[in-house]
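Convert to structure. Protein one:
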Amino acid sequence: MSGLAEYLLRKGVSVSGSDISENGRTAALRARGVKIYPSHARENIGNAQAVVCSSAINQNNPERLAAMERGIPVIGRAELLALIAEEYKNVIAVAGCHGKTTATAMCAHVIDNCAGTVTAHIGGEDAEFGNMRIGGERFFVTEACEYMGNFLKLRPSAAIVLNTDADHLDYYKNAENLTRAYCEFCEKAGAAIVCREDKIAELIRPALTFGLSPKSDVGAEEIAGANGKYAFTLRAGGEMLDRIRLNVYGKHNIYNALAAAAAGLYYRFPPFLIAEGLEKFKGIRRRFENIGRYAGARFIADYAHHPSEIAAALQTAHEIARGRLIVLFQPHTYSRTKAFFDEFVNVLSGIDDLVIYKTYAAREYFDAEGCALTLAEHLGNALYIETVKELVLYLKGTLTGGDTVLVLGAGDIYYAAKEALSRLNKGE
């Protein structure tokens, strides 16, 4: 939402909004003259000519109701994104259960380096581009969120699908419905670029496939890793192309890089420019981000909140950790925890030092079957914590030099960990 607000602001539109949590993005928008209200109230809409709502805003929201009563158009976030996309000649939309923010940013760097400019709407904070990069009207790269079928509003020139792992089953009800939505997303696009190892590759007729399978159109050969970062030789059309050295942690990022490379090759950009673009990518905030140190222990934060993402983050952490690995995980929504309960137990059960932080509920109401405490009770190796104060006490009595603290979750655990780190370093 903040990226779309930034886009409209750059186009000369008067923008205001409501956000119950203060963060770097709201502060940046406020500094640009945007009026931001700290709560939702009917009077906040003022003389607005349109009200834009994300999928997290329910039908009874006071601002939404006030707009409808006054006949002011209420537009969904996905609808606004689709309208913006229509202004561009080439639209590349990146979808998938996990990896889409990183892959979107990688794709933006590739296109920017190859075409000289790009407009990119990214679901996280890219180290260089932020979450909204505006440059020209030839290429628009955007993250395409599958929640509530939002990505079906887009009509991209090229649709990228990283994976179709089950998620958001509170909306889709089952994996089959979710898979059908991904297929429809691809069918509405001018071309589909999909992971060869994912089942969607057999369900549609993609323009290109990518992955580590030898059957993929775009692949990685001669893979080498050092201290959690990877390099590989790009393969396409049976030919060995340029060497690519990634500047981000994690073997899973090879897939994201191949997706971005495949997009570049689809538009017939030179392989050496594609490689340069990927090497310029320095990462996304909350994607294996170093957030600080205390008593010789380093803190790394990652957005992982799905069992598959957690497994990938743990693999990377084990590659770079030199001492003990302490994992702090916050479940994201009761419905996801409940739907993948056994998978969460399986992926977290082998961790020696594990803390489960209270659930980030987002748009949901309490559900004991899917709450963090229930998850912790099913993990014999877990300590349950609810407050920053408790977290500070635990870390103060636990950490020693050389330890690595891995902070996992898509909710407010990032800010809780940073606050705990600040208090620890102040000696509180």
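Protein two, convert as well:
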Amino acid sequence: MGSHRFLVKEIAIQAGVSTATVDRVLNNRLHVRHQTRIRVMRALEELERLQDSLNMSGDRFLIDVVVEAPDRFAEIVREAVEAEIISFRPALVRPRFHLRETWTTPDLVARVKRIGNSGSKGVLLKAKNLSDIRCAIGVLHKQNVPTATLVTDIPDSARIAYAGMDNVCAGETASYLMSRFVVALGGTVLVTISHDDFLGEADRVASFRQAILVARPDLKLAQISCGHAQSTTTRRQVSDLLERGARITGVYSAGGGNRAILEAFDTHSAPEPVVIGHDLDDENRVLLRAGRISALIVHDLNQDIRQAFAGFISFHKPKFKTEAVRFSTVQIVTPANIPEIV
């Protein structure tokens, strides 16, 4: 393995493993799991990006970012975190990332337990609203490790804050747009969700369904859960509907996977629907520019992360004044107003 500039101890902290494990990975020794090798290599990449802050002096806050989401969304979370940590100087926020497209509940709980045992100043968590995960948040709280939920909430837990937009308002906004963009009478609006246990998506869908049935009683509704918005599952489920003869005139994509959704329409030569989605990731930018997505409902992810991290610092340093975490403002992006990437 090539040379690096970091102490084994620093790499071990960033990877959340022992120094002995890091030594085995760096020296290509046996008896190291493949996933552990990947974690150590990713830790090295993260340290390279954090190099400037590692050389500075100040109070250090090691914060863990645990996300279950498609890679396309996890990447914009990573970018937002790394963009915002400089705003807390002279406090030095050092993030560790635990990003997976899918976590089993036992694996996620085990990772959270390891974070609590190894020491952390806070956990920013995007996960399902399940009892085992709520219990894990409670254990962290007892260990003096605060948790803030991101984008999708886990309300009946010991989390200190939810950072994200008002998902009920987001669903109502999607209904307003859909009711006006779908011109033809009749037809079916397809609602897609990545997983029923993500409370944020469930709230979006519930408010959308309630509002669209009032605004457009002529429209039928169909719903699929798209297996964590992964392409193969999403494409297959949409294809099944089209093969059964569904006349889908609109899609409210509450959980992502828009390219796969549209690929299913292309495969079946079906008329292209109005698509209302969420999040301005790279995939959605391409589809929006091509006019294949009519509108995206977005929010200021950087603001969410900034407020959550400020809450962590305030938890440990009460003299650090911070405003209460508020819902992000719901914003609408169309092909006419796509913001530039900063």
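The mean pLDDT is 88. Residues 167-298 form a domain with the Rossmann fold fold (CATH 3.40.50.2300).
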